[in-house]
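cron nightly-structures :: item 1 of 1
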Amino acid sequence: YTNSGETSVIIKLFDAGTGEPVSSASISIIFNGITLKTCQNGICSGSLSPGVYNVYINSDGYSGRIVKNVIVPNPAQGILKAQYYLCPESLSLPGNLDCFNNAGLSDAILALQILTGINPDAYELFPENSVSSIKIGMEDVIYLLQKNAGANAGE
């Protein structure tokens, strides 16, 4: 369903820890008060006017996340298809940058890759799990190295 002048939007949501679809969620457009239909079986759909939006994604059992600068094209350019991963609350830990397992040395490697301009091999990164809660930086590398050295000290 599309209103005249609006673009169809289809967004798929997955669990970052398992890769499985998120069963139910809601997606809200920040500042506009628009909410796409509640998602079913990991798929959210609706329609939006063309533009650039900041999107808030929320589901029970997951940390909410903001996706900035989502571009909704002109209807003549086609539909918007996107997919995002949500981090289970149990894995939303400082330093758990890929939201997979726990904050470990693999997360320190991801942070170093980002800092050196290498595209990391991860489904999606979660800067909200960084030390600053905003962006991934050297402080994450230091935190993760210290945390993991302390956890393994005495072995």
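cron nightly-structures :: done
The two ends are 60 Å apart (CA to CA).
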